[in-house]
Specification:
The chain is an alpha+beta fold. It folds into two domains: 4-127, Beta-grasp domain (Ubiquitin-like (UB roll), Roll), CATH 3.10.20; 130-259, Orthogonal Bundle (Fumarate Reductase Iron-sulfur Protein, Chain B, domain 2). The protein contains nine helices and eight strands. Strands 1, 2, 3, 4, 5 and 6 form a six-stranded mixed beta sheet that branches. The protein is elongated and about 60 Å long. The structure holds iron/sulfur cluster and FE2/S2 (inorganic) cluster. FE2/S2 (inorganic) cluster (FES) binds at residues 77-80, 82-87, 97, 99.
């Protein structure tokens, strides 16, 4: 069913919602790819009509479906504010965070398609097994490795300019939107993927870290940074606006320097 404006505010909404603010509720159709491994042999698409306001987000729609229509709908979310990275999913074919995708930014004259991110094993409905993703992340040693200790009672100091070099890649929330939008990752489950490289970048270019060469060696592997085909899907998918492809290019350059 196509999205329809509702004349009346929902019965349980405060009276002033529709009258004072002029905000109208809409009926929006969601088509969600469901999969229950205990029942289904293959995923199936299921339609839901949900009453929403344009200020609502896709996450609000999923909550409404789960709480009011079908409690078995399964998805991950925690913070609901774009910080924890747990609700990355494909919304109308694009990787996004459900909690940061406003209904008003989607074309609600058509159904909204929601499915799990690609390239990772599907567990149930919108939940995938994130372990392969985190295994790659762990491999690049995502922590500071320093050969010396700071002066007693002092911090490890760094200039503003040096901090700026890796500022962008500190913003990663490990949502996997980039890695699971990468065609190389879809076809080759061994590729480290953009998120692991972004997090390697964060330490390779940190002047306080002494293990950049170790990480570059790891990413010089045949499943490492050279598998990137510069499709920019990762940069488009990143909900934090990180220039993922640029970070990968910088790691490639550093790897070439390390080879000389
Ligand atoms: S780089 Fe962006 S898309 Fe990739 S995991 Fe980090 S926050 Fe998510
Ligand atoms: S629920 Fe935490 S980022 Fe969306």
């Amino acid at each position: 069913m196509a999205a329809t404006a509702l004349a009346e505010a929902p019965a349980d909404a405060p009276a002033e919602d529709a009258e004072d603010t002029g905000i109208q509720a809409f009926l929006v159709t969601f088509i969600i790819r469901r999969f229950d491994p205990e029942v289904d042999e293959e995923p199936r698409w299921v339609d839901y009509d949900v009453e929403l306001y344009s200020t609502d987000r896709v996450l609000d729609a999923l909550h409404k479906i789960k709480w009011e229509v079908d409690g078995s709908l399964t998805f991950r979310r925690s913070c609901a504010h774009g910080i924890c990275g747990s609700d990355a999913m494909r919304i109308n074919g694009r990787n996004r965070l459900a909690c940061k995708t406003l209904i008003k930014d989607l074309d609600i004259s058509k159904p909204i398609y929601v499915e799990a991110i690609k390239g990772l094993p599907l567990e149930k409905d919108l939940v995938v097994d994130m372990e392969p993703f985190f295994a790659s992340y762990r491999e690049i040693k995502p922590f500071l490795i320093a050969n010396s200790s700071p002066e007693s009672g002092k911090e490890r100091v760094q200039t503003i300019a040096n901090r700026e070099i890796f500022d962008d890649t500190t913003k990663c929330i490990l949502c996997a939107a980039c890695t699971s939008s990468c065609p190389v990752f879809w076809t080759d489950g061994q590729y480290f993927g953009p998120a692991a490289i972004v997090n390697a970048h964060r330490f390779i270019f940190d002047s306080r870290d002494d293990a950049g060469d170790v990480r570059l060696d790891i990413l010089n592997d045949k499943e490492g940074v050279w598998r990137c085909r510069t499709t920019f899907n990762c940069t488009e998918a990143c909900p934090r606006g990180i220039e993922v492809t640029k970070a990968i290019a910088e790691v490639k350059q550093a790897a070439m320097g390390a080879r000389r």
